[in-house]
């Protein structure tokens, strides 16, 4: 029967491939010829559209355009800006900022790239219909302030109102329906479990988050004040009475020009000079000649999202999760390649599974033992399990606004016995073994089971902190001061020894050159691992593994949604704001559930 099933599977698959292959081939040919860039004109203005957001991925994939996904890659934007800064044909850059969902870390990294671009004598202009709406407007404007000319519609507003973080607490709601939350946390700052166990914010959690928002605010205002040449006292006063009307923002130098999109585009062309052509960043990148022979090859490996044990990988259509198995496989491949001399780990993760995080740390150590230089570059988050994955690297780089640390652990379960009794359902259990059934979602922990759970939490915390001490050369007596679950910004983490340098991928590459003994201007060839597979490759792999027809079809023509709950939350977010705080934690090493308030 298994053989017969396989035969039918192949038959259906061949039929499906026959139907889809024509479409795929046609699409691929069309995308190739449409996107193939001609020779560059003598005068070019680059266009960077950030309205779809920016993330740690790759830029210009054909499938993104086909499915209207316009998220651009931070790494690719920075790399292209560096090439463009040295290209005499490039006059400047025009940035679209309306409704751009940009976090503080992406803004800080892009600011660095734009500053280097402008230092070469080129202009940088930006347009937003309005600086308000969803997302962190402070971060979006922080990026805008680094441009030499910021445009906004006369009907727009500048909602430079400050920063507010929110945390939900659902203990009372759980008790109302008869659900008992039984969680342990180590220690007082590890407040992720408080979502379920408290009715309000604990004082340690408040202290930690107040430190974060105050540091973020100072970083943002320092950047704006320096770029816009506004005294800090005056800028703080403007923030305290924001949102600002367009004329007010213009009068105080926060907006250079009040005008509309068509006027902005005309001004960009006029500034670039006669005959200038506006070209999308990805089209420009595709027209560039290969770099000269590199001094060294560097692997760039992404670890994005909650850390999980699973063997999945960041696929063309899938939500991004940090699969430890896929990450470690890529790391082992880079470590075993004699042509690769350094490895950059780009980690953007709030944490997750303890076992998965520990396996990543071990893979990092093995790469170093194999003679590779390993640099960890932190994105928006590299906290708890995310920090665990980074801490064994030769050097750790973070942006000033990165959230990291959160060296602690929480764990537990929900007991739903009272809920079932309200529904008239009684559960019986038959077991053998002292703690059999301790993880049942029906009954609370027995005293013995609760003791075992506490012992496990204690053991994980001890292991985590001991490894931090060993990897970061922090004396044992100082560990308590940097751990206990406390969340640090990258700037503060550097001050306490958890981070080596402040910056982004550019800084990580500079450190790689330094550790390899190369000149500061040495050319590095960067290879991104693991390579992103095409839909057809994924479908063929599923076929070989005995995947179902529906899985194969989905791999070819659509997205398999493995978390329908997450999909519902995303649908609500335009109205409610970020609801990711309500998603289930991916593991015991995870930072608190917080969101930027609208």
Question: What are the SSEs and their pairings?
Answer:
Blueprint: H1 2-35, E1 44-49, E2 54-55, H2 62-66, E3 72-73, H3 74-85, E4 90-96, H4 104-119, E5 123-128, H5 137-145, E6 149-152, E7 157-158, E8 165-166, H6 171-177, E9 180-186, H7 194-197, H8 203-228, H9 232-241, E10 244-245, H10 246-251, E11 257-258, H11 261-272, E12 277-280, H12 281-287, E13 296-304, E14 307-308, E15 322-323, H13 324-335, E16 340-349, E17 351-352, H14 354-369, E18 373-383, H15 385-390, E19 395-398, E20 403-405, E21 409-415, H16 417-422, H17 447-472, H18 476-482, E22 487-489, H19 490-495, E23 501-502, H20 505-516, E24 524-529, H21 535-544, H22 549-557, H23 564-576, E25 589-590, E26 595-596
Parallel strand pairs: 1-4, 1-12, 2-3, 4-5, 5-6, 6-11, 13-16, 13-24, 14-15, 16-18, 18-19, 18-20, 19-23
Antiparallel strand pairs: 7-10, 8-26, 9-21, 17-25, 20-22
Helix pairs in contact: 1-22, 3-4, 4-5, 5-8, 13-14, 21-22
Key attributes of the depicted protein:
single chain; 598 residues; alpha/beta; 2-enoyl-CoA Hydratase, Chain A, domain 1; 8-stranded mixed beta sheet; 6-stranded parallel beta sheet; 23 helices; 19% strand; globular; disordered N terminus
């Amino acid at each position: 029967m298994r053989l017969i099933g396989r035969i039918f599977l192949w038959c259906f698959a061949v039929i499906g491939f026959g139907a889809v292959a024509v479409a795929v081939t046609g699409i691929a040919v069309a995308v190739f010829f449409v996107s193939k860039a001609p020779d560059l004109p003598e005068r070019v203005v680059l266009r960077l559209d950030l309205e779809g957001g920016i993330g740690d991925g790759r830029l210009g994939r054909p499938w993104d355009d086909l499915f209207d996904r316009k998220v651009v890659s931070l790494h690719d934007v920075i790399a292209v800006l560096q090439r463009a800064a040295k290209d005499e044909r490039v006059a400047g850059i025009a940035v679209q900022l309306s409704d751009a969902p940009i976090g503080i870390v992406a803004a800080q990294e892009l600011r660095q790239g734009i500053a280097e671009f402008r230092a070469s004598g080129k202009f940088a202009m930006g347009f937003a219909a309005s600086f308000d709406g969803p997302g962190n407007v402070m971060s979006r404007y922080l990026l805008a302030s680094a441009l030499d000319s910021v445009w906004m519609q006369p009907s727009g507003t500048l909602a430079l109102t400050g920063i507010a973080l929110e945390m939900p607490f659902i203990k009372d709601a759980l008790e109302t329906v008869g659900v008992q939350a039984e969680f342990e946390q180590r220690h007082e700052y590890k407040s992720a479990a408080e979502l379920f166990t408290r009715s309000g914010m604990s004082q340690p959690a408040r202290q930690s988050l107040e430190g974060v928002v105050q540091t973020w605010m100072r970083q943002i205002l320092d950047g704006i004040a320096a770029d816009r040449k506004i005294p800090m006292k005056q800028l703080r006063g403007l923030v305290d009475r924001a949102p600002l009307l367009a004329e007010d923002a213009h009068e105080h130098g926060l907006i250079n020009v009040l005008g509309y999109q068509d006027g902005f585009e005309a001004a960009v062309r006029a500034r670039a000079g006669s005959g200038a052509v506006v070209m999308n960043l990805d089209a420009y990148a595709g027209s560039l000649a290969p770099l000269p022979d590199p001094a060294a090859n560097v692997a760039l490996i992404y670890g994005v999202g909650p850390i999980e044990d699973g063997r999945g990988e960041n696929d063309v259509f899938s939500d991004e999760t940090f699969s430890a198995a896929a990450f470690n496989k890529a790391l082992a491949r880079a470590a075993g390649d004699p042509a690769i001399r350094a490895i950059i780990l780009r980690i953007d993760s709030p944490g997750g599974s303890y076992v998965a995080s520990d396996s990543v740390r071990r893979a990092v150590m093995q790469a170093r033992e194999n003679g590779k230089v390993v640099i960890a570059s932190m994105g928006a988050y590299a906290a708890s399990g995310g920090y665990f994955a980074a801490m064994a690297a030769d050097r750790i780089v973070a942006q000033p606004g990165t959230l990291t640390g959160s060296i602690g652990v929480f764990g537990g379960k929900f007991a739903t016995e009272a809920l079932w009794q309200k529904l008239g359902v009684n559960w019986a259990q038959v077991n053998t073994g002292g703690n059999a059934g301790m993880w049942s979602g029906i009954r609370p922990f027995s005293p013995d089971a609760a003791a075992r759970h506490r012992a496990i939490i204690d053991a994980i915390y001890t292991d985590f902190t001991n490894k931090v001490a060993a990897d970061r050369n922090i004396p044992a007596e100082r560990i308590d001061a940097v751990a206990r679950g406390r969340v640090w910004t990258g700037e503060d983490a550097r001050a306490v020894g958890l981070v080596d340098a402040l910056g982004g991928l550019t800084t990580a590459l500079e450190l790689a050159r330094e550790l390899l003994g190369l000149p500061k201007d040495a050319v590095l060839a960067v290879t991104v691992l693991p390579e992103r597979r095409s839909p057809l490759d994924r479908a063929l792999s599923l076929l070989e593994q005995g995947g179902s027809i529906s899985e194969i079809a989905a791999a070819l023509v659509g997205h398999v949604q493995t978390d329908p709950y997450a999909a519902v939350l995303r649908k609500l977010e335009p109205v409610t704001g970020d609801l990711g705080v309500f998603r289930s934690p991916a593991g015991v090493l995870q930072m608190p559930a917080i969101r930027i308030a609208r």
